[in-house]
Specification:
- There is one protein chain.
- The protein has 430 residues and is of the alpha+beta class.
- It has 2 domains: 256 residues, Bira Bifunctional Protein, Domain 2 (BirA Bifunctional Protein, domain 2, 2-Layer Sandwich); 89 residues, Rossmann fold.
- The protein is 36% helix and 22% strand.
- An 8-stranded mixed beta sheet has the order 3-7-8-13-12-11-9-10, sandwiched between helices. A 5-stranded mixed beta sheet has the order 15-14-16-17-18, with helices on both faces.
- A hairpin with a 5-residue loop joins strand 17 and strand 18.
- It starts with 18 loop residues before the first strand and ends with a helix.
- The protein binds histidyl-adenosine monophosphate (HAM).
Length: 430
């Protein structure tokens, strides 16, 4: 029989203190809260509202939205059935947000919906540094706008978030995938170009050649990359309107001094994109170098049941990879909070008094700790030190009789006597 349990590989516990799990440093909860609140603050400046959708979604939504042929859907879904319902732990949040938009008729409110999210996602990938089975994404979606300024705004917001953390040594790769008419023509051209080399392709690429040849452009294999050097270029096949929009996007990014590199081989791992596609990379986070990615997905709404097209654009980013980038920068992050005061009790009467005094101080807004193990005064002081309490209030029989407490400033060792009725004012004034 099993006597102890471990978390599932590729998932991790976020503890109050920073921990190391499978060679990866996992930041503590205060650091997560700080990072999340900075993200919320920047999202707010761009006038995005937060949305929270369920972790469980219908499998069909993800299969249709993200695309049957993608790795995410074909290999990496945590999916199961109960009765007639097929559930999936969401591998991403764009399709769920679009589902919510359609379900709640958010389009009828008029205007454009600008939504952001922070939360867990699940993909059954092989775990390694920067790649987990449960990870956290933050991201945003601008739903209901085909205006290329929305594309530029999403990219500006994404870069502003990293800048807010001092992460500027990044590379923004940009491409356009054209519309749904131009892509099949390109697909054919690429297939024709690669056909004579079929035996030189990896088994994965060989499979993709039939089903989804664009994904071969994504290859990390050096030999395949060399092969692709002479391949037809997507931009030469795309429609005029997409090309014009791409030119406009580049001009808008230049207006904001956002530097980018055009990468005609950038295709994304999700099938819903049209036109704009981008990725933000860092050279400092290991092999999984994509901090964030996104693009325009004008056809997703119809793919999941909308009668009308809903032009949209967004990005999503990995929280864990943001933490890796912060660690590479050596950025200090908030540590677990210390109590404002630690109450030390001597004797039963004082222990009882401490119990309700803690409540009184807490109601006044102080963060109060005391010993919950019935230990000696020495051990209580040691515990106060361990918790980094800046001040201890020491009370025994005599102090209770005189209604005056001993207050010790831990850093200096200085000790003063304070009337208990003045304690709150004194502690708050420190
Ligand atoms: P994605 O590129 O699949 O795009 O994921 C976005 C980001 O999530 C990645 O750049 C990476 O930082 C992080 N990520 C993905 N998989 C893992 C993993 N297994 N472990 C750790 N981090 C991971 C999307 O999900 C799209 N929904 C983005 C989007 C939003 N497009 C339009 N709107």
């Amino acid at each position: 029989m099993k006597t102890s349990f471990q978390n599932i590989k590729g998932t991790f516990d976020i503890l109050p203190e920073e921990t190391v799990s499978d060679g990866t440093t996992i930041a503590g909860t205060e650091a997560w809260l700080f990072v999340e609140s900075t993200i919320r603050e920047v999202m707010g400046r761009f006038n995005f509202q937060e949305i929270r959708t369920p972790i469980l979604e219908p499998t069909e939504l993800i299969a249709r939205g993200v695309g049957q042929l993608t790795d995410i859907v074909s290999k990496e879904m945590f999916a199961f059935e109960r009765g007639d319902t097929h559930y999936v732990l969401r591998p991403e949040v764009t399709a769920p947000v679009m589902r919510a938009y359609l379900q709640h008729h958010l389009g009828q409110k008029g205007g454009v919906q600008k939504l952001f999210y922070i939360g867990p996602c699940f993909r059954a990938e092989r775990p390694q540094k920067g790649r987990y089975r449960q990870f956290h994404q933050f991201g945003c979606e601008v739903i209901g706008s085909g205006d290329v300024r929305a594309d530029a705004e999403v990219i500006a917001l994404m870069t502003a978030i990293y800048r807010a953390f001092g992460i500027v040594d990044t590379k923004l790769r940009l491409n356009t995938l054209g519309d749904e008419q131009s892509r099949p023509r390109y697909r054919e051209a690429l297939r024709a170009y690669l056909a004579p080399y079929v035996n030189e392709l990896s088994p994965t690429s060989r499979q993709r050649l039939e089903a989804n040849p664009l994904r071969i452009l994504d290859t990390k294999d050096e030999k395949e990359r060399r092969l692709l050097e002479g391949a037809p270029i997507l931009i030469e096949y795309i429609d005029e309107a997409s090309r014009a929009q791409y030119e406009e996007l580049k001009a808008l990014l230049s207006d904001l001094d956002i530097r980018y590199e055009e990468d005609p081989f950038l295709v994304r791992g999700l099938d819903y994109y049209t036109r704009t596609a981008f990725e933000l990379e860092s050279a400092h986070v290991g092999a999984q170098s994509a901090l964030a990615g996104g693009g325009r997905y004008d056809l997703l709404a119809q793919e999941i049941g909308s009668k009308e097209p809903v032009p949209s654009v967004g990005f999503a980013a990995g929280m864990e990879r943001l933490f890796l980038a912060l660690a590479a920068e050596g950025t200090p992050l908030p540590q677990p909070k210390a109590p404002d005061v630690f109450l030390v009790a001597l004797g039963d009467e004082a222990v009882r008094w401490t119990f309700s005094e803690a409540q009184r101080l807490r109601e006044a807004g102080l963060r109060v700790a005391y010993d919950l193990k019935g230990r000696s005064m020495k051990a209580q002081m040691r515990e106060a030190n361990r918790q980094n309490a800046p001040v201890t209030v020491i009370v025994g029989k005599d102090e209770l009789a005189s209604e005056r407490a001993q207050v010790k400033i831990m850093a200096s060792g200085e000790q003063v006597e304070i009337a208990i009725q003045d304690l709150i004012a004194y502690l708050k004034g420190l």
